[in-house]
Amino acid sequence: QQQVKQSPQSLIVQKGGISIINCAYENTAFDYFPWYQQFPGKGPALLIAIRPDVSEKKEGRFTISFNKSAKQFSLHIMDSQPGDSATYFCAALTIGSNYKLTFGKGTLLTVNP
Amino acid sequence: DADVTQTPRNRITKTGKRIMLECSQTKGHDRMYWYRQDPGLGLRLIYYSFDVKDINKGEISDGYSVSRQAQAKFSLSLESAIPNQTALYFCATSATRQGNQPQHFGDGTRLSIL
What is the mean pLDDT of each run of 10 residues along chain A (113 residues)? Predict the structure, then answer.
C-alpha cells in the first residue's frame, strides 16, 4: 500500500519557469510533510516542510501548498534554475508516534538552460 | 567533515557473501535509520533504532540485520547477499528532543551484488 503518491516521475522545465510536483496521502494521522532534495551522489537533504495547520509555506523560490481536505500537497519552484536539477521526494510522518518517514517515489527534475 | 558518514561508499560483491555497511554520526542524535533506494521506488525503511537498546524493523527488513554498537554507530548487515539487494543504501539520523526534527542523511553506499 503506497501511502504517499507522488507525480510526475520526471519533469523538464525551462530556466525561469515554474516547476510543480504533486503529492497525495491517505493516512490522516500524518501531521508533518517535508520535501527532500537529492543531487546525484548525495543523500536527500531537507528542503522545506509544512504542518497541516497552514495552507502555504514559502522559503525563497520554494513554496509548499497544502490542501488538508483533499489530502494533497505540492511543491512549487519559482524561477527554476539549472542548479535546481535534482530528484525531489515528498514525505509524511506522524509526530509523536514512531517518527517513521513515508516517502513518495520521487520526481527527477531537469531544468534546461 | 560530514555529520553522517557511511562506509564504504561503493561495494561490489558476489552472491552469498556477508556484507556490512557502517554508519557513524557526529550530530549527537539518538535516532538512526537505514533506508534502501531503488530507481522509481523512492526510499524504503529497512530498520530503525531509537536508542542503543531499541531496534525496530521497517517495511523491508527481510534479509537484513542491524547492530547499534553505540549511540553514534549503526551498522547494516546482509548475511547472505543476493542480486536483488543491489541498491543504494542510506543511513539517516534524527533527534527525539526536537519534535518534528527532520532526518539527516549520509551520502549513501552503492552496493552491487553479482
Answer: 87 97 92 93 93 93 95 97 97 75 94 95
